[in-house]
Design brief:
Length: 401
């Protein structure tokens, strides 16, 4: 079995490596030549615990190679970004481009699977595209959708042990895709159709977005009411049937912050709760930025000088290097754009550099700052002492008191 993975990002690369670890000959394709070069050298271009060692193993034994162009295989997997464009409309141009790139290589008996998060109907749309370009393949290849559902930082374990939902454009396609994933997935494989599988992925992340929005809305209410939201949630969760999530400074990442829009754009009249949750979680970042700006102005009034402000964390969640759709970045941008005159120190311990911000080591930023703003609950931040003489804005529950 030879598989071609189109996209070597946060999901494509770990999945390609995992397949190679289980005996599949893998060609990984990425349009970024630096990613291809590093992958072939056995060097990770992302941070994921344990992945580097496995990459070195599968490149050394020849089970995985990377290239900027696809080549003939038995199975093709589309694992490329699906961002949105103006007014949060889904952009499937990357999926289409990757599909068009593999169409010349498809042959009788091949498997084509989309893993990229996609609007409902995308798999059927790509099937139509394939058969419009290669009509002789109709009824001779298998086409399916299988969304990923892994947690950054625990990807290697979850790729193998999590259940997977697999939906083909027909029953034969579903069965063919399930046969492939059985090679490395020990979790249960759930068969369905392509549209249900697409909607399942969107539903999972929209559900989480709504739950986070409830926690974030509680934090707004508690701030007005003078109540410690962390204590409130801890006590409410003592109820045997209540499990409120922890609030943060918004919602980030390429899944929860994006996927609900794939539903609201297609079903605007029916998705009122989902749309409201998106609004709340986006507003939370704006609210946090206003809190920081007001703290800067208050410090200047009280001390007759501009403060030093440490913005702690840029990644969208703890202990990863993924900055996609990060609310922390939005907050930092908004504070800087306010031009308060404060010295802003930005710290993100999981990346070496940032294209926009000059990064300061977190301990140095913590020591120098008059105002400390916790945006991401990175583990190193939790080891810092409580700064009695500094103003602390803890938006992610570092101290929870």
């Amino acid at each position: 079995m030879k598989a071609c993975f189109m996209g070597l990002g946060y999901i494509g690369l770990p999945t390609a490596i995992t397949a190679a670890m289980h005996g599949v000959d893998v060609i990984g394709v990425d349009i970024n030549p630096t990613v291809v070069e590093k992958t072939n050298a056995g060097q990770l271009h992302i941070i994921e615990p344990g992945l580097g060692e496995r990459l070195r193993e599968v490149t050394a034994n020849g089970k995985l190679r990377a290239s900027v162009v696809p080549e003939p295989a038995d199975a093709y997997f589309i694992v490329v970004p699906t961002p949105f464009k103006g007014n949060h409309q889904p952009d499937i141009s990357y999926v289409q481009a990757a599909t068009e790139a593999v169409v010349p290589f498809l042959k009788d008996g091949d498997l084509y699977v989309i893993e990229s998060t996609s609007p409902v109907g995308t798999t059927e749309l790509m099937a139509e595209l394939i058969f419009s370009l290669r009509p002789e393949l109709k009824g001779k290849i298998s086409i399916a959708y299988c969304p990923e559902r892994v947690l950054p930082g625990n990807v290697l374990y979850e790729l193998v042990h999590n259940d997977r939902v697999i939906g083909g454009v027909d029953d034969a396609s579903t069965a063919k895709a399930m046969d492939f994933y059985k090679r490395f997935v020990s979790g249960e494989l759930h068969a369905t159709n392509a549209r249900t599988a697409e909607m399942c992925k969107l539903t999972e992340n929209s559900s989480r977005d709504v739950q986070i929005a409830f926690a974030n809305e509680l934090s707004l209410i508690c701030d007005r009411a003078g109540i410690n939201v962390w204590d409130l949630i801890r006590l409410a969760n003592k109820h045997p049937r209540v499990n409120i999530l922890q609030p943060g400074c918004g919602v980030g990442g390429h899944c929860i912050a994006v996927d609900p829009y794939f539903i609201t754009s297609a079903f605007p009249e029916e998705s009122k709760i989902i749309a409201t949750a998106r609004h709340i979680n986006n507003y939370k970042a704006e609210w946090c930025a206003e809190k920081v700006i007001n703290a800067i102005l208050r410090f200047e009034l009280d001390n007759n000088r501009k403060p030093v402000v440490a913005m702690m964390g840029v990644a969208f969640k703890p202990d990863i290097d993924d900055l996609r759709e990060s609310p922390a970045k939005t907050i930092i941008d908004n504070v800087m754009e306010a031009r308060t005159g404060a010295e802003i120190l930005v710290s993100e311990p999981n990346v070496k550099s940032h294209p926009q911000f000059k990064l300061t080591p977190y301990a140095e930023a913590f020591d120098k700052a008059d105002i400390i703003v916790f945006l991401t609950a990175h583990t190193p931040f939790k080891q810092l002492p409580w700064p009695d003489q500094k103003k602390v804005l803890d938006f992610c529950g570092i101290f929870k008191h």
